[in-house]
UniProtKB/TrEMBL annotation, chains A, B:
Keyword line: Isomerase
An example Gene Ontology biological process: glutathione metabolic process
Entry EC number(s): 5.99.1.4
Name the record gives this protein: 2-hydroxychromene-2-carboxylate isomerase
InterPro entries according to UniProt: DSBA-like_thioredoxin_dom, GST_Kappa/NadH, HCCAis_GSTk, NahD-like, Thioredoxin-like_sf
The UniProt record lists the keyword Isomerase: yes
Reactions the enzyme catalyzes: 2-hydroxychromene-2-carboxylate = (3E)-4-(2-hydroxyphenyl)-2-oxobut-3-enoate
CDD domains per the UniProt record, alphabetical: DsbA_HCCA_Iso (cd03022)
Length: 204, 204
């Protein structure tokens, strides 16, 4: 049994979310300083956005311009190289399925591949939207792309992802990145400092 | 001529924005610590939301629930008493016109009345949406409600507010609260710590 004090931070993100990418680059180190591990939980933001009626952030008038400016500013602040990939926003369902397939047997490997995919998109500006692009990435990462190709078609993996997305929505996750810390919700990469303070103080 | 180093922080807010209320309660003290003054700039978020196609925050599924939770958490953090008024969201055009009328002759008085209105709504839970409610508040605040009643009908004041809203949109303001610090945009009460760091470091 895991006590609350050592429960991992649940880190929800969409592979097509640039703010999620920034969070992915720093969350494990931040959590380690707080004596916590991190459970990585990719989900499909698009499924939630149907319910919240949100539009893709960077395409929204005025707010999208701010987000571009803010993203670049945040990337400079953390000293994290960052590009918006040529095709953006992009589908992240194949990346998610690959993740949960890996996660079933080796969560650490799934986490490493998630970061690998994120960097491929937001550091190298490459496509990770299509199943073939994800398999190519898997191959580059030294993973078994042939086995992954089968997994991406596996109805059980499709169901698993669907269940994870439903669970995320049920937990109130509606943005990326989104953190659950002992059940307490924090939305946004810019709330990591608040998570830190929350854990230091034991809440308020 | 005002040098950049002493330029006031421009504080944009909508009178019906609970996060704006929280910011209004703390921004002057925060700015004073940074050696800055604050220019208060109420605007009509609804006018911008037509362009960004945003819905009133607390009415959005899932996200609205988070916002209620987050608002209460932020209010506890700052130790600021806070209620969501019975009728919410509400119109803020009369409050804005009253503000800019006062602001024309006495910005400090306008600022004080803005905070008075905000506390009336989000501390006492009273209505500030109708011209009569704003005039009643003015009377309670010891202001000349009769003169304000005329001002609320004055086409010049209506035009002035319209121009202020247009200016805000042109500057990229799309949320409440929103801060412009030497032209650098920061959205959200939760970015005040970032504003502090930005000024301390001279940007990045």
């Amino acid at each position: 049994m895991t006590s609350a004090a050592s429960s991992p931070i649940e880190f929800y993100f969409d592979f097509s979310s640039p703010y999620g990418y920034l969070a992915a680059r720093i969350i494990d180190a931040e959590a380690a300083e707080l004596g916590r591990k991190v459970t990585w939980r990719p989900f499909l933001l698009g499924a939630v956005m149907k319910q919240t009626k949100a539009e893709p952030l960077l395409t929204i008038p005025i707010k999208g311009d701010y987000a571009r400016h803010d993203l670049a500013r945040a990337a400079r602040y953390y000293d994290i190289p960052f590009v918006v990939p040529p095709q953006f926003p992009f589908a992240s369902i194949a990346a998610c399925r690959a993740f949960y397939w890996l996660n079933g047997t080796d969560p650490a490997k799934a986490r490493d591949f998630a970061l690998f995919l994120y960097e491929r998109a937001f550091l190298a500006g490459k496509d990770i939207s299509k199943p073939d692009s994800v398999l190519e990435a898997a191959s580059d990462a030294g993973l078994d792309a042939a086995a992954m190709a089968l997994a991406l078609q596996d109805p059980a993996i499709k169901e698993l992802l669907k269940a994870e997305v439903d669970k995320a929505i049920k937990k109130g996750v509606f943005g990326s990145p989104f953190f659950l810390v002992d059940g307490e919700p924090f939305w946004g990469h810019d709330r990591i400092a608040e998570v830190r303070e929350w854990l230091r103080k034991g809440g308020w």
